[in-house]
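Task: complex structure prediction.
Instruction: return structure tokens for all chains below.
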Amino acid sequence: MVSPLKLFYMAVWRELHTLTRYKANFVFEILTSALFGFGMLVLAVAFDASLLGNTVGSTNYVAFITLGISFQSWQSIALWRAAGMFQGELSTGQIDYTFSCPFSRYWYIVTNIGASAILSTIFFTPMLCVGLWFTQETLTAAGLLLGLTATLLTVVALAQLGTIFAALVLRFRQVTAIFSFFNFGFQMLTGMFVPFQLLPLPLQLVGYALPPTFGMDLLRHYTMGITPIMAVEYEWISLFALLVSLGVIARLTTRYLEKTAKEQGLHYI
Amino acid sequence: MSLDNAIACHNLVKDYKGHKTVRALNDLSFSVPKGEVFGLLGPNGAGKTTLVKILTTLLKATSGSAEVGGYDVDREEDKVRQIIGYAGQDSERSAYFRLTVRENLLYFAHALRDVPAQTVRERMDHMATSIGFSDRLDKQFITLSGGEKQLVIVMRAIVHAPEICFLDEPSKSLDPVTARNVRNFLRSYADEHGMTMCLTTHNMKEAEEFCDRIAFINHGRLQFIGTPSQFRRRVTLKEVIEVGLPRLEKAVESKLLEIPGVSNITYNGTTTLYCDDAFNILDQILAVLKGERIKAPVRMVEPSLEDAFAFFVRNGEAR
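Output:
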């Protein structure tokens, strides 16, 4: 059985080679990321910063929204990348070859998401840097480290959900609408663009079950100094608990859906 | 299963469930000894690809069992995957377009099959030299022709030196010269390494020259298993009369089939009549043709593998 580590670094190697062979796209991905960050400067004047200040203890709307968008970019990769990869493999027939190979399906998906997340970071970095630039007054080295750790854990937790989506592709072939449904929910219910505390209570209850709620809140807390939605210790524990439970569900789901997909064959989309 | 068998199937059944359940394999049993090059023949939709997919752990049989390399394909799928190679049908797009041939083969063998990178490099250089492909190893996959892509897919199937290799129509998009080079290479590779090969094909020349034994499957049932010459001989028991016309009218066909001894008529460019005793009924056949004012060359011929294929497709279960 191939080790997860080898699957991971070879996926990074493959993605890097592929990425650099689409040079114009490579350059514009980075430019777009920076553009988004600076675009928030323009949008910021249209919003009432005092409402944000009253709610989360910081009026720094530019940093709040830019960090949210950076987070959204990682979230999209973590949730969607593997499902997209499987859809591609299904339509080209490559899935038949890959699934005749001896490796863990779970680790194949997770390591491919990881590889994409790492390479996507190249593009998200300009946007994140713009967000962090506007947190200069509150940013410390320790705060940045803790914020990025929370981000990393959240991406790993989201990758478990991404694994479930990818496995769903094996069974249902086309899951774009399922993804859009969940992605929209994740954006609206986790405080990505609107402070979590402003959401109606029933929606907040749903948001507590989603990893980005805690990951994003911790990132903003450590970098911008916002008031967290609960004690930070509880947020860390919640994030870990979600990561472990989603990991178990993802492993079981992958195994189950591969078995059921084998009833009809893998390559028909 | 005998220790000398590389592949064994026991009463395999595969149903595709849907609005209407389709039975793709129907009580299929056979075995393939180690080191053999084994061909699966049959018309489109016969169940060949379904069978290969079950044997490569990609599909689950509805009932029955199968072993590959002594491992059960359902219960020991990881062990089966470690010893097999696979090239699927229509897989000319099934590699990373923007990676070179070298990078693709390295990725698939090293990352997905755990073969050391240096070993992969040596093997791919050896393979490419053998089939005259060395100058294309550093080209991006997307820039290759359809036949070249298919060649890469065949190379991918054996670059990790599998014990048993499954090739689903490997020479489908190859030109005759390349197809022969690939066959020669695969044959010598299989002989040298003792690799068992199971391939599906519609190319009768390939089946005849390349396979030690063949199985003929139709409607999911095994109708013949044996050497290509035995396959032909099953038809040769019937004698063949060829009429130089692409097709006969229904009325003429009926009259000819009424002659005692004429058992079947097939069309494949010319009209072929299968007879029990061609020499003695030739006069009656000529009389029918003359009566119908048909002027065409008529001759007795040795049946080809293609005739045998057509005969089995038309006749179903062999006599």
